[in-house]
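Exercise: predict the fold of this chain.
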Amino acid sequence: MMRSTNAPRAIVAALIGAALLSACAVGPDYKRPDLDLPKSLSAQSSSAKTSAVAVQWLSWWKSFNDPVLNQLLDEALVKNQDLQIAIARIDDAKATAGIALSNRFPTVDANLVATRSRTSENSGKLPAGAVPFAKDFQFGLSAAYEVDLFGKLSRADEAAKARLLSQQASRGVVQTSLIANVAQTYFSLRAFDAQLSLAEASLKTRRENVRLQQKRFTAGSIGEADLRLAEAELAASEIAQTQAKLSLSNVESALAVLLGRSSKAILQTEIARGSNIDTLYQQVNMPSELPSDLLARRPDLIAAEQNLIATNADVGQAKSAYFPSLKLTTGLGRESRDLSDLFSPSSLLWNVGSSLVQPIFRAGAVGSLVDGAEARKRIALGQYVQSVQGAFKDVHDALATSEANQQIEAASQRRVSALKDALRLSELRYQNGYSSYLEVLNAQRDLMAAETAIIDAKRAHLSAIVNVYKAVGGGWKM
């Protein structure tokens, strides 16, 4: 065993020299794929209402001017379980990235060993008269370091960091989807509120009709058929009211889940209400300009690209297995058979070592490892391209749907106005004996269906506007 007072300097010099070696990372450096992208995004159309006010894309929902909606979204961003799962996945990715980074640094361990042994007196290993019992005490530090000659460790670190960024962006995907879902479910809630009010108003009218028809039948002014038609229509209105209540109850429980409320709160749902559907619809304005940096804003595109970066680094890490690996080891400590002499100068020991390993034969394992990494990179590339295609499709569809729903709502308003006149004329014709009661009922049914369609059109338009905000990555910042 070598002993020298220059041991600490030798150890430090070995580690510093290893750290200063220049790593040459094999494998391709990442370059974003060239894609045929539109030069700009436009929200302008011939009929859509646009707003000259710049949209605050990080909090676009505030443009609806509904404090209750704002409060519900704040609640969801704190309690929603999908978001909590996404945050936990980020923490997991951080831990993995920390492990990958730590592999690029030396490992240092402290060792303390105490042994007592007995050698067989019949083994012939002991001198005559020697004591068969022995004690040994060791204390020291050991260090090891793998020199990253060909970038195996740096590529692993690069891949882990990219996957961490991908998980952070995936949290953005969950967040943008959550905000959009809460807003759209809230709009559905207010739409079902309006439909329930419409059903209750219709039910009240039908009950009044039955009361009047009963009087007319008793007086002999109408036949039994008209009375039975009024009663049948009353039953239909009761069914419509029950269905509206059921739809409202279901959307309340769905919103409670999105808000992250407890199981008890879901069973006993109490959702606050703010602006009604008509007021919310009046607040809708299509932004005059959409942000053109879609690839930099959409969290799903960022996640897909970071995954592509990670798989690209995996290829370099796999190819590094073709090349030699160099590991340095060193130790510094004390050893003595007597504990009292453990820290005396003569008990000093140290060692410095190195190993260079060059793979020669692995039965194709390294090649298979590289082929697998290349295949996963092609998969990630395809997924990235699909994500980009889907993003621009989302923008296109959201804009088209928004414009179509606005046109539908305008046409529905004209239809309701015409049907109100038709109902008024039908009632006059019936009262003067020029038509049957069935004509009045048909006019009432058509009017109610048209009024329900207006509510649906307003809800659909609000939902489409939310999809526009979501499509351009609004509501999230990395």
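Check your answer against the key: The two ends are 57 Å apart (CA to CA).
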